[in-house]
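CORE FACILITY INTAKE
Project code: CF-77B
Contact: R.S. (postdoc)
Sample description: multi-component assembly, three entities in total
Requested service: structural model of the whole complex
Turnaround: standard
Below are the sequence entries exactly as provided by the requester. Do not edit them.
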Amino acid sequence: MVTKFIFAGFGGQGVISMGQILALIAMRRGFEVSFMPSYGPEMRGGTANSTVIVSDKKIASPITDSIDVLCAMNGSSLEKFSKDVVPGGFIFLNSGMIKEPFIKPSVKSVYLDPKKMAQALGNEKVANVVMLGAVLSEINIMERGNMDDILEYIFQGKSDDIISLNKEAISLWEKEKHRL
Amino acid sequence: MEERRLMKGNEAFGLAAILGGARYYFGYPITPQNEVTEFMSRELPNYGGFFLQAESELAAINMAYGASAAGGRVFISSSSPGLALMQEGLSGLASIEAPVVVLNVMRGGPGIGNIQPGQADYYQVTRGGGNGDYHLIVFAPASIQEAMDMIVEGFEIADRYTNPVLIAADGMLGQMMEPVTLPSMDKEYSLEKILKTKPWALTGHKNKRERNVIKSVYLKQELLEEHVLKIFEKYDKAVKELPSFEEVDLKDAEIVYVAFGTTSRMVKEAMELLKEKGVKTGLIRPKTLWPFPREAFDGIDKSTKMVVSCELSMGQMIDDVKLSLKGRLPVSLINRTGGMLLTPGEIVERTLKLL
Amino acid sequence: MRAIFEYTKGMRDQETHYCPGCTHGIAHRLIMEVLEEKGKLGEAIGISPVGCSILAHQYMDVDMVEAAHGRAPAVATGIKRVHPDAYVFTYQGDGDLASIGMAEIVHAALRGEKFCTFFINNAIYGMTGGQMAPTTLEGQKTTTTVMGRDPAVSGNPAVMCEMLSQLKGAVYVERVALNSPANIRKAKKAVSRAFEVQEKKLGFAFVEFLSICPINWGLAPSDAMKWLAENMMEVFPVKQFKNPLEVK
């Protein structure tokens, strides 16, 4: 079972760290994983993306042209990558940036405004973690269970406040989605 | 089993060098390998090592030349245009028979090119960009873990052959992250201990031995020829001992791909996709680019109709593929260049066109 | 009977390839004499350049390595990192140091590398047969400036001591001349001070030797000595530019 993710958006929206956190979570859960960032002038010029492959076998290609899960943090990312999302795949859309509804046959679209949700937690910087929480909540590639220990591993060395903020952020969608 | 940790390629390469005993690093910033230089500046002093940012790649390789001639265990890194500047020093190091491990995180060329991944340094690293008769021993890792293992082993091989060893990675491997298990660091790398194994090193003669002279000038042609022949005895040995490759599904394969480094991973995924379409393919992945694993091609099955070299260049390794096949089979090229990547989908599409 | 003069221990018992009247032999001997007197021949590591003195390692009886053209300061930097207590020196001509190796020497000085550089300035390329050097004087005829060096075309002579003495890391900078017994004695003192600066790890030490090249200048050795005094010393004044206080 291989799942291929692309997180894409503006530089500063945290798409690189979204990919890194997912890669760390998957690794801690015993999966094989690869993380490939876009780099160089592309990153500085505004758009950034990261590709994460999660698999129960050794990973061949760390890049892909068949995306299972796209996380589009802005319109241009949606435009660039949505065509490569495979049937049965998911597209997570940042509804704070993408106002038009997006429909692709046999692909499930999930809308959320992670920045707004993060603001409710008191810190919009964790919008990317809120988004990642939504991704983990909607797709069933690994048992979610309690992620507290993994987040403590990922954010080791950071303050307790930051760790608990991220713990809240990652489970926010799971808690709130039925109300939204 | 030791805990896996998720590491960025460039940082993992630096850590592997330290674990492999490197205590001297000289570098000049160039993308996409800057994290190696930054990592070494941060970490090497913690292991009793020395980091120095050189004024140019030219200076860096010559600092490495001095440190290696003085008996130190030396690691340096750069990317394609920077490696071009180091060619003078690499030719010199091969001639003075000094060990050093050089990492090339390859990017798009020619000229300044760009900072995206590339494999168009194949000629530069295997054919000797420097002057004269010499070879670099060249390893091509396909994963971060393999790169770490090759770097650690590279120091042993560089010492054994008293010759530079080059690790040909690319920007993708440098920038991506994968879980790795650290190579063990069970050896002691004190300078004192290392110097005992290098009686030729410059230390000052201490009035206890004849002076050591390390040189590559031989003004008498007979002596230079003799010197080159002596170096090539080592290369003959390397050709026997070092070639290494991975082979996948050669039996019954209709098409056999040849790909090194990260490109081989895209090929592996393309092979799965082609299997679903009923096309049987195999892969030969050279792990050493010099010496090139020619014997790998003896394992090609009678079922095979065509060999395809997959490269991020206009076709450079394909020369070695053809030399290895000795005309037995037609050879095609599937490639991208200029920093573009071959995706599994594109490999499938272009393979189907070849059939 | 008491010996009043002996062959310099640091020099190997071997004829050199230098041309008649060349001052390389004097410079070699001064460096080896100083190391001998300090009892440090066994601690010395020398780097020979590309140029006439490419074979210096055949004559100096210490551990030596040859560097690619101009790169001796980078090579010395690497050696000094491995053996910080060794007496490391580069021996470089004007083409090697002031032309192709300008970046390496300037950056070694900027870093305050703790080794010595002995710079042989004879205002011409010797080994390749008399072409213009970066230190060739204005109007001086060479095989690549047959009408004389024209600053409008090929610039002005490189004044290395003046340049390097501007840099904080170059703590000892002196220009000497090898054209008379008195000047040679002064030159030896400069070599000795340069090694003392290295011994005390004070920074980079640089000694420039005004030298002659009778063959490529087309002069008899005695005339060459005169030419040096009359022409070179005006552009390249003999003086001590910098001497850290710690050294007496």
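Facility notes:
- Chains C and A do not touch (no CB pair under 8 Å).
- The first helix of chain C runs from residue 24 to 38.
Invoice: internal transfer
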